[in-house]
Amino acid sequence: MSPGRRYGFGFWSVAAVFLTVIAFSTAPGPLYTLYRERDGFSAFVVTIVYAAYSVCAVVSLVLAGHLSDSHGRRRVLVPALLLEIVAAAVFLFWPALPGLIVARSLTGLGIGAFTSTATAWLGELHAGHRPRATNRRAQVVGTASNVWGFGVGTMLSGALAQWAGHPLTVPYLVFVIALVAGLLLVLAAPETRAPMTPRTRYRPQRVSVPHHVRGRYLAAATGMFAVFAALGLFTSVAPSYLSGPLHHPSVALAGAVTFVVFTSAVAAQLATSMIGMRRLLTTGIPILLVGLALLVAAVWLPVPSLAGFLTGGVVAGLGGGILFRGNLSTVVTLAPENARAEALAGLFVAGYLGLTIPVIGLGLLVRYSTPQVGLLVFATALALAVIATAPTLLCRTGAADERTPAPLFSEASAFSLATAVRDGDER
Known about the structure:
- Pfam families: MFS_1.
- InterPro entries: MFS, MFS_dom, MFS_trans_sf, MFS_Transporters.
- It is found in: Cell membrane.
- Keywords: Cell membrane, Membrane, Transmembrane, Transmembrane helix, Transport.
- It comes from Pseudonocardia alaniniphila.
- This protein is mainly α.
- It has one domain: Up-down Bundle (Growth Hormone, Chain: A), CATH 1.20.1250.20.
- The protein is about 75% helix and about 0% strand.
- The protein has 17 helices and no strands.
- The two termini are about 25 Å apart.
- Mean pLDDT is about 85; it is low at about 410-425.
């Protein structure tokens, strides 16, 4: 096989494994209602299981997300993938609550190292396959594999649980097989980053805030917090709303709803790839607010509406996808090159905190009130946070805000950019 074809094979192999790993990370989402029915634990316990994943993902991103720059792509990706396989095995053989927490923690630890490494590797494999082309294909494929994988995982596990029998076994068995196949593909892909000799001294990825633009930076971080919280709703407690107030207990439906929401987020990102930063923000903020309002209205109607809930999810996905890129572009523009890694790390720490704190709060509210009140408070808090920071985020600092298209990056590619800037490596 010629070098160009080997790089092409490697590119699509890593992309497929990327999609598979992200899909596995959301596979338990539609199944939480089945665990609750079997073991009798509350919706709040589901949020704790979900939070274990988010916390471990943050830890892994900061401690290991940059290691492949000095150790090589495969040397980091293979252990991360093995962690995912072990997590799937824990789901299979230890289905009690402690096992769920351990499995979700292992999944988060693997995801943090995997996503940043896979995105960087995709960019380098693309360059080897098409050396004269721009990096747009790698950006589009990386974003689609990452964000769309969240929806694919829930849809697949929900469908398998609904129609294949053994709902708490078959989905994980399928993912074990897919992850092992992915490991073989990764081992066959060409390495693009030789280990550094001598190796640099280890340090975690630094997290910092640019002092001279702290107001806009914190506004962007707050916006990212809200986006992750809104989208995280659909990979955590949304199935409880479908089976509770909306009276639709189908796990296949729960997976399909999440798939549609994340598909809308991907479509929004791709459709707005050439839009300037300020226009992204002015478009994404109101769309996200409308989506949150529709979600609340759907469960507060005299007869709760599944169609309204789904519509709200799609609109929130569109707004979240657009606002994600607007916030990311804001930080990339604000941060000086020698501090961009630290600024981006802080931005995504804020995002993953958005996956954790609001969802735990929602779980507590539902435990001591009703699902309707919980969602109302949750959505209101996110809306107020976005509205409060919007004036600072939208303040004009120059014509560049209007002209510069926002980069098409997922959270993993942002960390890849960060480490590339830090090491002076133009990918």
